[in-house]
Every structure is written in C-alpha cells, then in structure tokens.
C-alpha cells in the first residue's frame, strides 16, 4: 500500500552503498523501505510507487509537496548530514544545477540504455531527468464546436470575451518561460493579440483545468492532458500541439539517504522503460524514446532551462499586467 504523507520527522542511521549493482539490489531488499520526496503529481507518483513495491517488495513512503515546501526540508537534512529522504524529485532546475553535490552518482543500468540518452538527460551522472510537465491545449467540448489543432487557434473571434484561460506569471518563473515560448513560436506580437481576446487569468494549472471542466472557460493552452476528467465523463478534450512547451524535473539519491541502496534501486526503476510507463503515461513527457502512452517524448517538446534572471522575470510580469489587467 502506498503511504502518502505531507511531512515527516526524525532521521535514520545511514547504511553503506554496496560495491556493485547485484549487491545494491540485494542490499536494497535488506533495507526494505525508502522515503521519496517529490513535487510530481500525486496520481502518477502513486502509480510509480505501487508498481515498484509490487516488483521489489520494498515499502515506499511518498512525501508530496511543491518545491518551495520540499527544498527547505532537503536543505536542512543536507545541512545537518542526517537524512529522512532517500530520493528527491524536483522541477527546480536552478537548484539542481547549483547543488550537484547533493546527490550520489547514479549506479543503476537504466541510465546507460540508449533509449534514455544519458548524455542529454543525466550528463553529470548524478541528477537525472525524470519527466516533464507538458502544456496541453485543452478545451470544453460543449463550448468549442471545432476542435483546435494549434495554439494559433486561440485567436479565433469565437474565443473572445473571457473564454480563454491563462496562467498568472506571478505564480512561478517557469510560467514566464511558457509565455516566452509562445512569443518565440507564434510571433513577438502574440501576447498582445491574445490580450485582445480578453482572457481570464488563473493562479495554477489545477484551477485552469477545473474552469475548463466546469464550463467557466472554453479553452486554455496551459493544462495537463485532461485524461482523468475525460474518462470521468466531463465534456473535455485536449491535444499536444506542435509548439508544446514543458518543464522537466530531476531526481537523485541524496547523499544523506538512510537507505541508499533502496534509493538507487528506486531511481533505476524510475528511469527504466517499465517505470516510465507507469509514471509518465499519459500525463507527463518522458526522457526515454521507447515509452508508449506518455504525453510526449522530450525531443517532441520545447523544454525550459534554468529559471530566467530575476530582472527578466520582473520585467515580464510588469508587461503582462499592463496587457492583461
């Protein structure tokens, strides 16, 4: 059974990492459990954990939260050299790039498979790309007569007057990059033209998706694939457009992991075809090229790098407010 918690305390005695992969697998089973900190969605994370537990008989405590909640916990554990978490998954690439020493070298074989492309997705052999949020173009089928095929369709006169939902860039610097991608792919005047449609602004992906399903808005270019909502009978549909944008996340086994062998085994499973199939299909992008059912492969979407400079973020937020409010 997957154990999901929002906080935990204490700390555990750290065991030693075995010398080879066979030894790591055996030692992981001896450790018998691990703790995962992740900012990934609950349902995909639970699916991944469930499949891992079924395969290896190792219990996983799943601690889910947003990056701003988890990062201080990780930094504290690293600072006192006493860990609770074994594996950490975060979408904060800037933090990842500035903390290469926070995680161990990757030991498992999955990262070396051609289909994973480690030279692009785990170039230092420490942090590994695990998945990506992919911006789907989603709509309410009761309110949109002709299914859109591209982001440019948002400029249709039929979608004017508060029918489009957009994310507020004040929520995260990554949303600034989402808009930068729109201007890069649709033209430098696209935001001005989009603003003329009088869109509604929302604080998060979740609120946008709720608004689409309820009919509060008709469409948005910033949504996860609305697979669950559609399956539940909501009048929604989605497409991954050619100019789809995404934010990649990264995972690693923390140097303070009390169960380093179990952590290494979990990370290897996460990067494997089997693990990616359980985790990324159908909502996330995958770093692998051999996963059926994922929202997209990394090479099919535009992925962000680290967050933009603070002055760039501030300038864009000011411009956005002048256009949209």
Q: What this model shows, in words?
A:
This protein is an alpha/beta fold and 325 residues long. It contains 12 helices and 14 strands. The protein folds into 2 domains: 3-132 and 246-294, Periplasmic binding protein-like II (D-Maltodextrin-Binding Protein, domain 2, 3-Layer(aba) Sandwich); 136-243 and 304-324, D-Maltodextrin-Binding Protein, domain 2 (3-Layer(aba) Sandwich), CATH 3.40.190.10. It is 37% helix and 19% strand. The strands form 3 sheets. Strands 1, 2, 3, 4, 5, 11, 12, 13 and 14 form a 9-stranded mixed sheet that branches. A 3-stranded antiparallel sheet has the order 9-6-10. A two-stranded parallel sheet has the order 7-8. The longest helix is centred in the N-terminal third of the chain and has 15 residues, at 42-56. It is elongated, with a radius of gyration of 21 Å. It starts with a strand and ends with a helix. Keywords: Signal. Pfam families: SBP_bac_11 (PF13531).
State the gist of this model:
The chain has helices at about 20-30, 40-55, 65-80, 95-100, 120, 175-185, 190-195, 205-215, 225-230, 260-270, 275-280, 310-325; strands at about 5, 35-40, 60-65, 85-90, 130-135, 135-140, 165, 200, 220-225, 235-240, 245-255, 285, 295, 300-305. The chain is an alpha/beta fold.
């Amino acid at each position: 059974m997957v154990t999901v918690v929002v906080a935990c305390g204490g700390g555990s005695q750290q065991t030693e990492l075995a010398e080879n992969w066979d030894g790591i697998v055996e030692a992981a089973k001896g450790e018998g459990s691990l703790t995962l900190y992740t900012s990934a969605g609950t349902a995909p994370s639970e699916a991944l954990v469930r499949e891992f537990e079924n395969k290896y008989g190792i219990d996983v405590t799943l601690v889910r939260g947003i990056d701003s909640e988890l990062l201080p916990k990780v930094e504290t554990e690293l600072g006192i050299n006493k860990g609770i978490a074994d594996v950490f998954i975060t979408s904060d690439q800037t933090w990842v790039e500035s903390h290469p020493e926070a995680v161990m070298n990757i030991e498992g074989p999955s990262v070396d498979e051609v289909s994973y492309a480690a030279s692009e997705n785990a170039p230092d052999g420490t942090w590994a790309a695990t998945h990506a949020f992919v911006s789907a173009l989603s709509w309410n089928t009761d309110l949109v007569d002709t299914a859109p095929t591209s982001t440019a369709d948002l400029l249709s006169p039929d979608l004017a007057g508060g029918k489009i939902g957009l994310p507020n860039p004040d929520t995260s610097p990554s949303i600034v990059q989402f808009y930068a991608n729109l201007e890069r792919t649709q033209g430098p005047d696209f935001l001005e033209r989009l603003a003329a449609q009088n869109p509604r602004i929302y604080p998060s992906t979740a609120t946008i998706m709720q608004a689409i399903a309820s009919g509060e808005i008709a469409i948005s270019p910033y949504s996860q694939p609305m697979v669950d909502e559609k399956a539940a009978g909501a009048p929604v549909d989605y497409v991954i457009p050619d100019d789809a944008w995404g934010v990649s996340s990264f995972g690693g086994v923390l140097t303070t992991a009390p169960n380093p062998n179990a952590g290494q085994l979990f990370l290897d499973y996460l990067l494997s075809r089997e693990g990616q199939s359980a985790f990324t299909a159908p909502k996330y992008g995958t770093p692998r090229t051999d996963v059926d059912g994922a929202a997209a492969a990394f090479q099919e979407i535009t992925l962000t790098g680290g967050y933009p400079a603070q002055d760039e973020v501030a300038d864009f937020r000011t411009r956005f407010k002048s256009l949209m409010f």
